[in-house]
């Protein structure tokens, strides 16, 4: 009887924590947005001359997100 | 019970990972980028002449029409319109690609700040109060 109550309480607490995990990502990620903006602006305005030479590099160095079982 | 704990840790890990970088590598974003990149060749002299300026909300505006020869004004206006359509689509698409359409305005303001920061000396940009100033 007591055991099932403890389990239920634990599940309830976890259920309460789950929205907290989601909340983390609801706030606007300002630093990440700034980084993304800088990358796109540099490309559109071609601000980094060296990046055009190293263009094939980022593509090939992209980690292959293979899902291993 | 261990399973729940593992699941919770996994969710936390995923949330933390999602926080690090924004997804900006989609076909739509890439095509908008190349469209803006090729248009920039025509926009650049207009920025340098002081005809166009960068707004704080991430757009381009005609700052001084007199700096554009009369015959070229319709072309310049078309360029500004097309650029702003691409920019709006870019901000919207980045927000959508990251499953947060409501971030669109924040993304536009972030881009606004960064375009202005990277603008060349002599270009017109808006300050925090929306007033034009020369960099």
Describe the structure.
The complex is a heterodimer of chains A (69) and B (135). Chain A is mostly helical. Chain A has one domain (2-51). Chain A is 71% helix and 0% strand. The longest helix of chain A is centred in the first third of the chain and has 23 residues, at 2-24. Chain B has one domain (21-134). With 135 residues, chain B is an alpha+beta fold. Chain B is built from four helices and four strands; from the N terminus they run ααββααββ. The longest helix of chain B is centred in the middle third of the chain and has 25 residues, at 73-97. Chain B has a four-stranded mixed beta sheet with strand order 2-1-3-4. Chain B has helices spanning 2-20, 27-48, 73-97, 104-118; strands spanning 52-54, 60-62, 124-126, 132-134. In chain B, β1 and β2 (60-62) form a beta hairpin. In chain B, α3 packs across α4. Classes of the chains: A mainly alpha (69), B alpha+beta (135). Chains A and B meet through α1 and α2 of A and α1, α2 and α4 of B.
């Amino acid at each position: 009887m007591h055991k099932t109550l403890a389990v239920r309480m634990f599940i309830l607490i976890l259920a309460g924590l789950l929205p907290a995990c989601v909340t983390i990502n609801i706030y606007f990620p300002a630093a990440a947005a700034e980084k993304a903006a800088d990358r796109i602006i540099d490309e559109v305005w071609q601000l980094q001359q060296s990046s055009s030479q190293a263009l094939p590099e980022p593509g090939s160095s992209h980690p292959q997100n293979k899902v291993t079982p | 019970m261990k399973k729940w704990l593992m699941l919770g840790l996994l969710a936390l890990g995923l949330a933390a990972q999602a926080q690090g970088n924004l997804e900006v590598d989609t076909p739509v974003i890439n095509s908008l980028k190349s469209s803006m990149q090729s248009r920039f060749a025509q926009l650049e002299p207009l920025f340098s002449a002081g005809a166009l300026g960068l707004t704080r909300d991430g757009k381009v505006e005609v700052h001084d029409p007199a700096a554009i020869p009369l015959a070229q004004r319709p072309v310049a206006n078309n360029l500004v319109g097309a650029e702003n359509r691409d920019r709006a689509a870019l901000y919207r698409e980045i927000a959508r690609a990251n499953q947060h359409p409501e971030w669109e305005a924040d993304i536009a303001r972030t881009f606004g700040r960064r375009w202005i920061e990277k603008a060349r000396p002599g270009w017109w940009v808006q300050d925090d109060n929306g007033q034009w100033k020369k960099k």
